[in-house]
Amino acid sequence: MAGLQQTNSEMILLSWVRQSTRNYPQVSVTNFTTSWSDGLAFNALLHSHRPDLFDWNAVASQQSPVQRLDHAFNIARQHLGIEKLLDPEDVATACPDKKSILMYVTSLFQVLPQQVTMEAIREVEMLPRHSRVTREEHMEVHQQHFSQEVSFTFPLSSCCSKIFF
């Protein structure tokens, strides 16, 4: 049940983010890892609820990912009281930490308007799932180790991972 509750919470949170940022064509949030690394999603989320705080076009077009992330975290701290829990350099990577992103987005969810439509939730349910390695597939590959050295690269948990067996 805990896994199901977490999945539902993530789905609602992702639905809220997508609904909040749908008017920002440069932003496409499909997960809680790579979708956040360029800083646009955090800024769009803030701007969608508080457009009075900054000029979206200036932030979106003239700054690097680290600068955009720093901007979003500073705006959230100064105007919403959310501590700067993340370092921009840790998020502006090929694969930011999912739990850290979830924690920060949850903090935003708690202070910004939280209306989520059923349409937004259904939209998230229809997003393609990333490949997941089943326990059986993992065991098959692990057993091959005895006969040869094998190296695979494939996505795990919606993020880039490299596994060597």
TrEMBL record:
SUPFAM superfamilies: Calponin-homology domain, CH-domain. The gene is Dmd_3. Residues 7-113 form the Calponin-homology (CH) domain. SMART domains: CH. InterPro entries: CH_dom, CH_dom_sf. This is DMD protein. Gene3D superfamilies: Calponin-like domain. Pfam families: CH. It comes from Climacteris rufus (rufous treecreeper). The lineage of its organism: Eukaryota, Metazoa, Chordata, Craniata, Vertebrata.
